[in-house]
C-alpha cells in the first residue's frame, strides 16, 4: 500500500504542469546562455565605432545586435519566471546552471574564446556546487498576500542585510570600480550579484502579487506591490549596466559562471534571511549546503586562476613556431643570418 502511495506521488511529480515548467526552464537556460554571446557581439561591434561600455560608453544602445541579445535575455527571464508558476523551485532553479554551459560552448564556437581544460573543470565545480545547494534548499513557504512578503522584508534581519548590500554596492561603484573595474572581474560582478539578490526578493513579491491577482485576489491596490516593482526596475537597470561592462571587458566564458555562482549564492543568503529557510531544515541539509558553498568557491578560484592560461599557452606555442622557422631558415631573432653571427664571433 505504501508502495502504491509512493508511485502515486512520483506520478503526480511528473504532471503536465511539471513538464511545462521543465520545458520552460530548459528554454530559459538556452535563451539566457545565448544572450550573453549575442550581447557581447553587439558590444564589440558598438565598441569598434564608439566608446566601449567597459570605459563608460553607451554606444551599444544604438546597436541592434545588442538589443537582440537583450530581448533574448528578457525572453529567457520571462520563461524562467513562468517556470516557477508551473513547477517547484527545486526542479527549476538547478537548470539555470545549464546557461553557463551553453554560454561557454557558444563563446568557443562564435567568439573564438578558448577556455583552458582546468577552466572547464572549474566551471563543472561551480555547477555541481550550485546544484548541490539548490537541491538541498527547503521548499518556499506558502504566502497568501503581498503584505506578508512586506512584513518579512521589513523585519530587522533583512533590513540589516538590505542596508549592508546597498552600502557595499555604493562603496564598490564610487570607490573601487573606477580604479579596479578594468582589471578585476569581481567588482563588476559583485555589483550585479549584490543588487540581484535584492531584485530576486522583489521579483518573488511581484510574482506572488500577480498570481494572487489572477486567482481573483487583487494585489495591485496595495502600495507594497508598487514599492517592490520600483525596486525591481532600479535593480535590473543597475545589473544591466554593470553586466555590460563585465562582458565588454572580460572573457564571456569567465563572466557567465562567476556571475551565476555569486548571484545564486547571494540570492540563497537573502532568501535564508528573509524567509528563514534554515529554521525548517535539519543539520544534515545545512551541512550539505555549506559543502556546496565550498565547492563553488573552489570552482570559482580554479576558473579565475586559469582564465589566461589558454592565451599564454597559445602565445608560447606561437613563439616556439617562430623560433623553429627562424632556425630552419638560418636567421636569428633580429633577422641576421645565423651563419653570419657565428662567423662574426670567430676572430
TrEMBL record:
Segments crossing the lipid bilayer: 19-38, 59-79, 85-111, 118-138, 158-178, 185-206, 226-243, 250-274
An example Gene Ontology CC term for this record: plasma membrane
A Pfam family the protein falls into: Mg_trans_NIPA
Membrane topology of the entry: Multi-pass membrane protein
Keywords linked to the UniProt accession: Cell membrane, Endosome, Ion transport, Magnesium, Membrane, Transmembrane, Transmembrane helix, Transport
Stored InterPro entries: EmrE-like, Mg_trans_NIPA
Localization, UniProt: Cell membrane; Early endosome; Membrane
GO MF terms, alphabetically ordered: magnesium ion transmembrane transporter activity
Signal peptide limits: none
PANTHER family per record: MAGNESIUM TRANSPORTER-RELATED, PTHR12570
Similarity comment: Belongs to the NIPA (TC 2.A.7) family.
Subunit structure: Homodimer.
Stated role: Acts as a Mg(2+) transporter. Can also transport other divalent cations such as Fe(2+), Sr(2+), Ba(2+), Mn(2+) and Co(2+) but to a much less extent than Mg(2+).
Protein name: Probable magnesium transporter
Species of provenance: Sesamum alatum
Amino acid at each position: 500500500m505504501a508502495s502504491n502511495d509512493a508511485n502515486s506521488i512520483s506520478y503526480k511529480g511528473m504532471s503536465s504542469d511539471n513538464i511545462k515548467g521543465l520545458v520552460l526552464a530548459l528554454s530559459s537556460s538556452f535563451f539566457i546562455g545565448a544572450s550573453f554571446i549575442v550581447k557581447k557581439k553587439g558590444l564589440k561591434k558598438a565598441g569598434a565605432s564608439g566608446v566601449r561600455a567597459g570605459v563608460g560608453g553607451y554606444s551599444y544602445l544604438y546597436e541592434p545586435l545588442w538589443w537582440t541579445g537583450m530581448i533574448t535575455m528578457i525572453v529567457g527571464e520571462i520563461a524562467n519566471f513562468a517556470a516557477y508558476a508551473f513547477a517547484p523551485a527545486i526542479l527549476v532553479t538547478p537548470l539555470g546552471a545549464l546557461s553557463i554551459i551553453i554560454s561557454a560552448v557558444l563563446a568557443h564556437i562564435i567568439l573564438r574564446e578558448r577556455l583552458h581544460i582546468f577552466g572547464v573543470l572549474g566551471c563543472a565545480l561551480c555547477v555541481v556546487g550550485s546544484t548541490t545547494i539548490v537541491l538541498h534548499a527547503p521548499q518556499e513557504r506558502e504566502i497568501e498576500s503581498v503584505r506578508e512578503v512586506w512584513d518579512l522584508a521589513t523585519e530587522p534581519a533583512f533590513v540589516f542585510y538590505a542596508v549592508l548590500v546597498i552600502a557595499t554596492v555604493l562603496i564598490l561603484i564610487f570607490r573601487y570600480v573606477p580604479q579596479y573595474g578594468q582589471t578585476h572581474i569581481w567588482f563588476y560582478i559583485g555589483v550585479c550579484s549584490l543588487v540581484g539578490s535584492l531584485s530576486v526578493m522583489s521579483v518573488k513579491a511581484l510574482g506572488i502579487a500577480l498570481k494572487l491577482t489572477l486567482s481573483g485576489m487583487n494585489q495591485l491596490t496595495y502600495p507594497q506591490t508598487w514599492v517592490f516593482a520600483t525596486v525591481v526596475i532600479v535593480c535590473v537597470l543597475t545589473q544591466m549596466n554593470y553586466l555590460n561592462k563585465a562582458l565588454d571587458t572580460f572573457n564571456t566564458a569567465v563572466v557567465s559562471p562567476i556571475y551565476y555562482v555569486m548571484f545564486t549564492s547571494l540570492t540563497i543568503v537573502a532568501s535564508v534571511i528573509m524567509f528563514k529557510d534554515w529554521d525548517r531544515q535539519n543539520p544534515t541539509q545545512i551541512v550539505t549546503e555549506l559543502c556546496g558553498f565550498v565547492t563553488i568557491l573552489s570552482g570559482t578560484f580554479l576558473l579565475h586562476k586559469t582564465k589566461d592560461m589558454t592565451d599564454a599557452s597559445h602565445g608560447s606555442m606561437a613563439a616556439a613556431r617562430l623560433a623553429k622557422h627562424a632556425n630552419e631558415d638560418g636567421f636569428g631573432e633580429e633577422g641576421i643570418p645565423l651563419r653570419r653571427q657565428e662567423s662574426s664571433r670567430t676572430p
